[in-house]
Design goal:
Elements: H1 28-41, E1 46-48, E2 58-61, E3 69-79, E4 83-88, E5 98-103, E6 105-111, E7 117-123, H2 124-137, H3 148-163
Antiparallel strand pairs: 1-2, 2-3, 3-6, 4-5, 6-7
The structure holds nickel (II) ion.
Nickel (II) ion (NI) binds near residues 132 and 136.
């Protein structure tokens, strides 16, 4: 089994809008298995395909206390008016953690690896994770959700981390 490398901030794929998965073919299963492997190796809780340099609309989550989940061609159909301020990190910005304000709850529709549609309603950490990973499919990183000043400070901190 090949190993997927996780790309980091500054790589152009992370800033691109990913394309829908067009075919639910047999190569999807092994790719998803590799995504979960890469997620485990990175000690992460979520990973989107653009983070392994595949610009397709697919992400996986593996949150403690929850089952491993695969979301393909997801659509956010509803978000709560209520927001929450929760600290986030990202395998593509290793070592950087920032509080980000996002909706507290979400309803998302997506397809599984067999092409079957499903809907998930989530709040708390799962909602947070879904919104973070879904952003990756649109080329948005969590630092892009900060105001301009906080974003600059966060990126300066990240650059300092890289030099260490
Ligand atoms: Ni991320």
């Amino acid at each position: 089994m090949s190993m997927l490398d996780i790309i980091t901030y500054g790589h152009e794929t992370l800033g691109r809008k990913a394309a829908p998965v067009a075919e639910f073919g047999p190569e999807l299963g092994p790719f998803i298995a590799e995504m979960f492997e890469a997620l485990k190796r990175g000690n992460g809780i979520g990973l989107a395909a653009p983070q392994v340099d595949r610009s397709i609309r697919l992400f996986v989550t593996d949150l403690e206390g929850d089952k491993p989940r695969v979301f393909i061609n997801p659509e956010i159909v509803l978000t709560s008016q209520e927001t929450a301020d929760i600290e986030e990190g990202c395998l593509s910005l290793p070592g950087l953690y920032q509080k980000v304000q996002r909706p507290e709850a979400v309803r998302i529709q997506a397809y599984n690896e067999k092409g079957r549609p499903f809907t998930v309603e989530a709040d708390g950490m799962l909602a947070r994770l879904i919104l973070h990973e879904n952003d990756h499919l649109d080329g948005i990183l969590f630092v892009d959700r900060l105001n301009a000043l906080k974003r600059e400070r966060a990126l300066a901190q990240y650059r300092r981390l890289l030099r260490k």
